[in-house]
Amino acid sequence: MNKEEIKKQIEILRKEKDAIILAHYYTNPEIQDIADYIGDSLGLSQMAAKTDSSVILFCGVKFMAETASIISPGKKVLIPDITAGCSLAESIVRENILEWKRKNPDGIVVSYINTTAEVKALTDICCTSANAAKIISSIPEDAKILFGPDKNLAKYIQTMTGRDIDIWDGDCCVHEDFTKEKVESLIAANPGAEILIHPESSCSHDPSILEREDVFVLSTSGMVKRAGDSPAQSFIIVTEPGVLYQMNLMYPGKKFIPVDIGNKCYQMRKVTLEKVLWSLINEEFEISIPESIRAKAYPSIERMFHINSL
Ligand code: SF4
Predict the structure, then answer these.
(1) Structural fold of domain 3-85+268-288
(2) Is the Cβ–Cβ distance between 67 and 284 less than 8 Å?
(3) Among 246, 209, 166, 202, which residue's Cα sits nearest to residue 88?
(4) Which end of the chain is more exposed for a tag (fewer CB within 10 A), N or C?
């Protein structure tokens, strides 16, 4: 079957099975092309919460599909490749949280959404890069806070809020490689370009980067919005280069410069059209979270939605 035939079959099965296809900005362009909704972690979780479809086919990595399942327990959540993991989510496990809680019984655990369901079940409030500063600022000043697992996002939030935070030493293997040196050399080569940086990047909290007026530290969806709203005509995009596909489609007159076009999230890109079709035909791989974990994990996401809406 060629790609066009696969797409037609996906379209037929999507309707037959009442499925919505959600895709992250970092997936392959062919996946973004067939998605009903493309977003970042916050947008995708909000969409999973409000969809009426019976089946959510999640094109992304496993923790994202788990999040959709936590939010929408009555729905069938499918992921086309069950091995699509995340170096960041895997850097912290429930025992790490339990150990911190033993030492800090009154402390507040704030977990980035890039965590497993088991970690979310021990988390007080989840956050995404779009709302992390707002979540931290909502916590009483005298509270002890653990922020995990992304150390770069934590350091950026610490800089922005001035809060004292216990920082878990995890990182995204893709964003860790977006260094200050690489970004500075692109700035020198592209005068006039605006610089949009994802806070997971290792350069996101560097004082010499942050003091620049042409730098904006934003979530992935925040970057897409800024690219449209800004009067600038060229942008240095400091995140996984998959987002450039949507930016180029949405703003064809503007120029988007990736830091490193080869530095991709190969976990997100495990999802292919063939696997999406297989997933719809076989209704596999279904995400199944024990209710005892799901029920404990849900309030951490619900608190995030609530604070995010204030
Ligand atoms: S880009 Fe990084 S944080 Fe996102 S899924 Fe890939 S490894 Fe995880």
Answers:
(1) Rossmann fold (3.40.50)
(2) no
(3) 202
(4) C
**Given this model, what pLDDT does residue 271 score?**
98
C-alpha 177 – ligand 1 centre gap (Å): 12
Which atom of ligand 1 is nearest to 26's Cα?
1
Residue 140 tokens, joined: 């009483």
Q: Which pLDDT does position 22 carry in this prediction?
A: 98
Name residues contacting ligand 1 (CB within 6 A).
Answer: 26, 61, 86-88, 114, 172-175, 240, 265, 267-268
Residues in the chain where the model's pLDDT stays below 50: none
* Virtual torsion, Cα 94, 100, 104, 109, nearest 10 deg: -50
Return d(Cα 147, Cα 108) in angstroms, integer: 9
Cβ(174)–Cβ(118) below 8 Å: no
Q: State pTM to two decimals.
A: 0.96
For residue 1, the CA-to-ligand 1 centroid distance in Å is: 31
Residue 292 makes CB contacts below 8 A (sequence gap 6+) with none
What is the per-residue pLDDT for 41?
87
Q: 246: buried, middle or exposed (CB in 10 Å: 19+, 13-18, 0-12)?
A: buried
Distance CA 125, CA 306 (A): 10
Q: Closest Cα to atom 2, ligand 1: which residue?
A: 172
**C-alpha span between 203 and 121 (Å, rounded):** 31
Q: Do domains 89-171+294-309 and 175-258 have the same CATH topology?
A: yes
Residues with Cβ within 8 Å of 185's Cβ and at least 6 positions away in sequence, in order, are: none
Q: How far is the CA of 45 from the centre of ligand 1 (A)?
A: 16
The CATH classification number of 89-171+294-309 equals 3.40.50.10800
Question: Helices (H), strands (E): how many in the chain?
Answer: 14, 12
CA of 219 relative to ligand 1 center, distance in Å? 13
